[in-house]
């Protein structure tokens, strides 16, 4: 039985580690060494990372890879990707190369509106509430004028506030639904500050409103927060080419296009398949979101809600063959930032933006959507031709070898051997133990 701790947050980093080693590792120094070997010797860089979150004890590395040859709207990109899973970067690169020769990817912004809500209770007459809202709305808007100054100068800010009756979903539940344009900022802080100010003004005005006083039914604020469901902030990415140029190995373009289109149709019809299909898309999306210091949890939550927007969880990608032309596309809700947050703090995020030729938020939305589409194309290409394991295990070989503590000579021999033999964990174990037996 472990003891709880009080005041842990006030301890120094060393004290925190000592507490952990004593309580969870029986004082074993190796746990401490594991944490310390990931500390950065550049103390100011370490301090920067320590300050990103709370109770920091070490750095948790993920690999940063790059996928070259992405032609997007006639601009060539090398896309940075942060991910732990082997074969994802290779798959993205593979799809980029495949489409490079066919005109590349097209991407367009559909909309950029973000939203947030003041959620409140009200059990009185709706007409009183509607009249109150209509009278109070100008004060709600002018009340956030100071907060909006800079955003407005740049061309963004609050778009509108509407009163939403949600009582059919939940008794007495209403919202002030607020829409925003936040330009190159993801906008979470801006939106939340505006919402909280709007809520405060709304609440104070309710106290002065006679019909509420008479009926003794006054709106009561529950909470104010942005929404990560952003179906009005979307981007479309697509690829397209004549079916005959889609030949893959010995498989004709027609057969490949039909199989891939069918695979997408299955993901549209069957949620069990759609979840895995979309997971493959998020391999690409999340990797770029992480590399560019954006909030992948917000994007994940919003994207999956979008995938279920018609009542059934379904494919995020679409495919069609019309008049001999194959088209494959994705529409994604993405609220991304290229300013604020980690974007100017994390040196590798700065590197990622430089590599991407300093995109604005709209350009980043396009790049991320393309990464998702490419990832899905590569996975489907494997699934409907060789099967996924061949390529995946080929890329996973090094992880298996590292897990077996293979020496560099053993690795070289294994890489040579597996150029022509299928990789599986058990046969790599046998291969390495055979090599060791020969010695
Ligand atoms: P391949 O055809 O054997 O590759 O594909 P290749 O050796 O002929 O090389 C062709 C190109 O592929 C290279 O061009 C690279 O662009 C890329 P080059 O650089 O030579 O000019 N490529 C690589 N890039 C970097 N490092 C490498 C590398 N190898 C090839 N080592 C590949 C091999 C793995 C790319 C292919 O089989 C593939 O795309 N497989 C799909 C892998 C995948 O989707 N992985 C994601 C994990 S599985 C998953 O989570 C999702 C899933 O469940 C989703 C779903 O069900 O829909 C599958």
TrEMBL record:
<protein>
    <recommendedName>
        <fullName>3-hydroxy-3-methylglutaryl coenzyme A reductase</fullName>
        <ecNumber>1.1.1.88</ecNumber>
    </recommendedName>
</protein>
<dbReference type="InterPro" id="IPR002202">
    <property type="entry name" value="HMG_CoA_Rdtase"/>
</dbReference>
<dbReference type="InterPro" id="IPR004553">
    <property type="entry name" value="HMG_CoA_Rdtase_bac-typ"/>
</dbReference>
<dbReference type="InterPro" id="IPR009029">
    <property type="entry name" value="HMG_CoA_Rdtase_sub-bd_dom_sf"/>
</dbReference>
<dbReference type="GO" id="GO:0015936">
    <property type="term" value="P:coenzyme A metabolic process"/>
</dbReference>
<comment type="pathway">
    <text>Metabolic intermediate metabolism; (R)-mevalonate degradation; (S)-3-hydroxy-3-methylglutaryl-CoA from (R)-mevalonate: step 1/1.</text>
</comment>
<comment type="similarity">
    <text>Belongs to the HMG-CoA reductase family.</text>
</comment>
<dbReference type="InterPro" id="IPR009023">
    <property type="entry name" value="HMG_CoA_Rdtase_NAD(P)-bd_sf"/>
</dbReference>
<dbReference type="GO" id="GO:0140643">
    <property type="term" value="F:hydroxymethylglutaryl-CoA reductase (NADH) activity"/>
</dbReference>
<dbReference type="InterPro" id="IPR023074">
    <property type="entry name" value="HMG_CoA_Rdtase_cat_sf"/>
</dbReference>
<keyword id="KW-0520">NAD</keyword>
<keyword id="KW-0560">Oxidoreductase</keyword>
<dbReference type="Pfam" id="PF00368">
    <property type="entry name" value="HMG-CoA_red"/>
</dbReference>
<dbReference type="GO" id="GO:0004420">
    <property type="term" value="F:hydroxymethylglutaryl-CoA reductase (NADPH) activity"/>
</dbReference>
């Amino acid at each position: 039985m472990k003891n709880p701790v009080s005041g842990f947050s006030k301890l120094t980093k060393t004290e925190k580690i000592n507490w952990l080693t004593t309580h969870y590792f029986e004082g074993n120094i190796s746990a401490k060494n594991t944490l310390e070997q990931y500390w950065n010797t550049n103390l100011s860089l370490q301090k920067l990372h320590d300050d990103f979150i709370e109770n920091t004890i070490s750095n948790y590395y993920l690999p940063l890879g790059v996928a070259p040859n992405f032609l997007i709207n006639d601009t060539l990109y090398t896309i940075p990707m942060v991910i732990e899973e082997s074969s994802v970067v290779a798959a993205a690169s593979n799809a980029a190369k495949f489409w490079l020769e066919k005109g590349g990817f097209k991407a367009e912004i559909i909309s950029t509106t973000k939203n947030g809500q003041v959620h409140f209770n009200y059990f009185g007459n709706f007409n009183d509430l509607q009249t109150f809202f209509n009278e109070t709305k100008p004060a709600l808007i002018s009340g956030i004028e100071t907060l909006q100054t800079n955003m407005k100068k740049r061309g963004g800010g609050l778009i509108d506030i509407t009163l939403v009756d949600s009582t059919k979903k939940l008794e007495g539940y209403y919202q002030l639904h607020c829409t925003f344009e936040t330009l190159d900022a993801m906008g979470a802080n801006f939106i939340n500050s505006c919402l909280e100010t709007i809520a405060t003004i709304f609440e104070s005005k309710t106290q002065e409103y006679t019909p509420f006083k008479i009926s003794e039914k006054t709106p009561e604020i529950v909470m104010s927060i942005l929404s990560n469901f952003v179906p009005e902030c979307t981007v479309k990415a697509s690829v397209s080419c004549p079916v005959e140029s889609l030949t893959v190995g010995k498989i004709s373009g027609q057969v490949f296009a039909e199989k891939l289109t069918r695979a997408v149709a299955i993901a549209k019809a069957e949620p069990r398949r759609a979840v895995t299909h979309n997971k493959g898309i998020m391999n690409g999306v999340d990797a770029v979101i992480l590399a560019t210091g954006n909030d992948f949890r917000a994007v994940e939550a919003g994207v999956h809600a979008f995938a279920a927007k018609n009542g059934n969880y379904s494919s995020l990608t679409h495919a069609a063959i019309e008049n001999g032309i194959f088209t494959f596309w994705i529409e994604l809700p993405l609220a991304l930032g290229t300013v604020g947050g980690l974007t100017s703090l994390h040196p590798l995020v700065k590197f990622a933006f430089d590599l991407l030729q300093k995109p604005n938020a709209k350009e980043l939305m396009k790049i991320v959507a393309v990464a998702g589409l490419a990832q899905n194309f590569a996975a489907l290409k494997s699934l409907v031709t060789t099967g996924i394991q061949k390529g995946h295990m080929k890329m996973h070989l090094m992880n298996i070898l590292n897990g077996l503590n293979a020496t560099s000579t053993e690795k070289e021999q294994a890489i040579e051997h597996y150029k022509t033999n299928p990789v599986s964990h058990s046969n790599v174990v046998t291969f390495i133990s055979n090599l060791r037996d020969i010695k």
